[in-house]
Design a protein that fits this description.
The chain is of the alpha+beta class. The protein has two domains: 171 residues, no CATH class; 96 residues, no CATH class. The chain is built from 14 helices and 16 strands. The strands form five sheets. A five-stranded mixed sheet has the order 12-13-14-15-16. Strands 1-10-11 form a three-stranded mixed sheet. Strands 2-4-3 form a three-stranded antiparallel sheet. Helix 9 crosses helix 11 and helix 10 crosses helix 11. It is globular and about 65 Å long. The chain starts with a strand and ends with a strand. The relative contact order is 0.14.
Length: 363
């Protein structure tokens, strides 16, 4: 089956629930592939784009470091998928999961370091949540010196960030609150048993980002290619498609929907790291390479404005008292009806950024 990028984009928009909002109890469904909370507050913004929920709806979800070590808001019943589902099967996979931390390990393998660090995190949080500095101090008291890394930013020795974040895949770490911008860490709720959480992780990825490939799965999840291949092999029946001349795959059960994806309507304000942007083949969403380069910088890129399922503008927001000023840069001409819809969406979005009203200005 031949598929165009327009069909692939429409399929992904619909699978991310950006074609039509879910109702007020839709938070678990909206978080089917997790809602990244980078920077803090982004998960609530992503949830608001997908479901007609109140400001406190994020409390229905649990935030855990997960894919690529990023904090991810997921449904409690999906915890095993986004933690155990990433557990590395071998040393190569463990190195990918712990990121750059393995480079500073002299005597321990990456897998052994993950084991030791996970047990230290479990023990540190046994008696209840800890603020960031207290959490790191508790780890210092429980870990051998050889596992502590010299942090130039704070001038102290502590467990490498990539390693302590990776311990979440062992079911020992969650972000349970905030003190200002700093996380408060605690033990996650008990995960519901899933027979093969890794296979379900691959299926979730394909359902949201198809048509895709094992390489795209590896990039999205932050795992070794060999690990991604193993997860891919367990995902179930797939159908190969030709995506504008490139070989890709979709879950067999999704092939008919990919061929005739639902049309999207309305306006959505998406954060820079919104889950829709999560797959590395961002040319499916934004064909213009120069625009992609402006959006996905290393730091500080703008959000995107989705209009009828297409990226049609960029946006940034700044709070001025209780007013949220949303600055929009249109990538094509916007008619009056679209501008009115954008103003309504900004008003709806404002409470999720701690504001009561919104104003849209055009760059």
């Amino acid at each position: 089956m031949k598929v165009t990028r327009e069909q692939a984009r429409a399929f992904r928009v619909a699978r991310h629930h950006l074609d039509k909002r879910l109702d007020a109890d839709g938070a678990p469904v909206a978080a089917a592939v997790g809602l990244q909370d980078t920077p803090p507050g982004s998960a609530a913004v992503a949830l608001a784009a997908r479901a007609d929920v109140p400001v406190d709806a994020l409390d229905e979800l649990v935030i855990v470091p997960s894919i690529r070590g990023a904090p991810l808001a997921v449904a409690v019943e999906d915890l095993a998928i986004f933690t155990t589902g990433l557990d590395p099967p071998d040393e190569e996979a463990a190195k990918a999961v712990v990121g750059n931390a393995w480079k500073s390990l002299d005597e321990l393998t990456a897998m052994r370091a993950l084991d030791v660090a996970s047990e230290a995190v479990r023990d540190s949080l046994r008696d209840g949540p800890l603020a960031r500095d207290d959490f790191h101090q508790a780890l210092r008291e429980r870990l051998p010196e050889k596992l502590l890394w010299r942090c130039k930013g704070c001038g102290s020795n502590h467990l490498h960030p990539s390693l302590w974040r990776a311990t979440a895949i062992r079911g020992v770490l969650a972000i349970v609150g905030r003190e200002g911008r700093s996380a408060v860490f605690g033990a996650p709720p008990k995960a519901r048993k899933v027979s093969d959480p890794g296979a379900e992780l691959a299926r979730r990825f394909l359902s949201a980002y198809g048509p895709a490939s094992p390489a795209l799965l590896a990039g999205w999840a932050g795992v070794a290619r060999s690990h991604a291949d193993a997860l891919w092999a367990r995902a179930g029946d797939l159908e190969a498609v030709d995506l504008d001349g490139q070989e890709a795959w979709v879950l067999a059960e999704d092939a008919a929907t990919l061929k005739r994806p639902p049309a999207a309507g309305g306006v959505r304000l998406l954060a820079n790291l919104d889950p829709l942007h999560g797959a590395r083949d961002r040319d499916v969403l934004v064909p213009d390479a120069a625009v992609r380069k402006r959006i996905w910088k290393v730091l500080g890129g703008p959000g995107t404005v989705l209009i009828d399922g297409e990226v049609a503008a960029l946006w940034r927001a700044a709070k001025k008292g209780k007013r949220l000023v949303v600055t929009v840069e249109a990538l094509r001409r916007l008619d009056r009806a679209t501008e009115d819809a954008l103003a309504d969406e900004a008003d709806r979005f404002a409470p999720f950024r701690g504001a009561t009203t919104a104003e849209v200005v055009y760059a």
